[in-house]
Specification:
alpha/beta; binds cytidine-5'-monophosphate; three-stranded antiparallel beta sheet; Rossmann fold; 230 residues; 9 helices
Length: 230
C-alpha cells in the first residue's frame, strides 16, 4: 500500500461522468480528486489568452514551462488549480478551450511535461485521477483502473445539463458534434491516445444512474483493498 492509500485511475471519453462520479467517490472514501484534463485545459486557456499559436509546439511548451501549474488545498476533494497565481475553473470549460485543448494534447513534449507533474501528485496514493491516459501511461501501476464509457448521445445530453447548471449556454447538436470530433481526436492521436487498457474494469454508464456508477466503483475499491490486504 502507498502512504495515503491506493491510486484509482479513471479514463474514458469526454462527458462520460469521470469527474462527477470521481468526485463523489473521492468524498466517500476520503481521497483527493484530480482531473488531469484541467491541466491540459489550463495550458490551452493561457495560450489562447496570450494569443500564442497553438500549432507551435515549442511556444506551447514554453508557456507550460514558464507558467507552472500548482494546486492549493480546498475545502472539497478537488484542490484548486492555479496557473501563474490565477485560480482557474469555469473558464476552462468553454467549448473553444476544449477544442484548443485537444489540439495541444497531441504534443508529446507537453504531455511528458504534464505527466511528470501528474505522477508527482499521485505517487503517494489516496487519490482518484481521471483523464485519457491515466490507466495506460500516467499510472500503469494503479491499483484500480476503470474505463468509464457511455454513448456519445448520452454524453452530449449530460454535457448540456452540466453547462446549463454552470449558467452557460449550450446547444445539444453542437455539443454532440464537438464530442464526436473530440473523441476521434483523442482516440486517434499518436501519443498516449484514449484506449481501454486490458486490466481496466469497463463500465458503460449509458443506461446507468450516477449513484449506480458510484456504488459500482465503491465496490471495486473495496474488492481491491481486500485483495491487497490478503
Ligand atoms: O477531461 P477533459 O474533457 O477536461 O479533457 C480535455 C482534453 O484534454 C481532452 O479532450 C484531451 O484531449 C485532453 N486530455 C488528455 N489526456 C488526459 C486528460 C485530458 O489528452 N489525461
Amino acid at each position: 500500500m502507498r502512504k495515503n492509500g491506493i491510486i484509482i485511475a479513471i479514463d474514458g471519453p469526454a462527458g462520460g461522468g469521470k469527474s462527477s462520479v470521481g468526485k463523489i467517490v473521492a468524498e466517500k472514501i476520503g481521497y483527493k480528486f484530480i482531473s488531469s484534463g484541467k491541466m491540459y485545459r489550463a495550458i490551452a486557456w493561457l495560450c489562447v489568452k496570450k494569443e500564442v499559436n497553438i500549432d507551435d509546439e515549442e511556444k506551447v511548451l514554453e508557456i507550460a514551462r514558464t507558467n507552472p501549474i500548482s494546486f492549493k488545498e480546498n475545502s472539497g476533494v478537488e484542490p484548486l488549480l492555479l496557473i501563474s497565481n490565477t485560480v482557474l475553473d469555469k473558464e476552462l470549460y468553454d467549448e473553444n478551450i476544449a477544442a484548443a485543448t485537444s489540439k495541444i494534447a497531441r504534443m508529446l513534449n507537453l504531455r511528458n511535461f504534464l505527466v511528470e507533474e501528474q505522477r508527482r501528485l499521485g505517487r503517494d496514493g489516496g487519490i482518484i485521477m481521471e483523464g485519457r491516459d491515466i490507466t495506460t501511461n500516467v499510472f500503469p501501476d494503479a491499483e484500480l483502473k476503470i474505463y468509464l464509457d457511455a454513448s456519445a448521445q448520452a454524453r452530449a445530453e449530460r454535457r448540456v445539463a452540466q453547462l446549463r447548471e454552470k449558467g452557460m449556454e449550450a446547444n445539444y447538436r453542437e455539443i454532440l458534434d464537438m464530442i464526436i470530433k473530440r473523441d476521434e481526436q483523442d482516440a486517434k492521436r499518436k501519443h498516449n491516445p484514449l484506449k481501454k487498457s486490458e486490466d481496466s474494469h469497463y463500465i458503460d454508464s449509458t443506461n446507468m444512474k450516477k449513484e449506480d456508477v458510484v456504488n459500482l466503483i465503491l465496490k471495486l475499491y473495496e474488492q481491491t483493498l481486500s485483495k491487497i490486504k490478503k
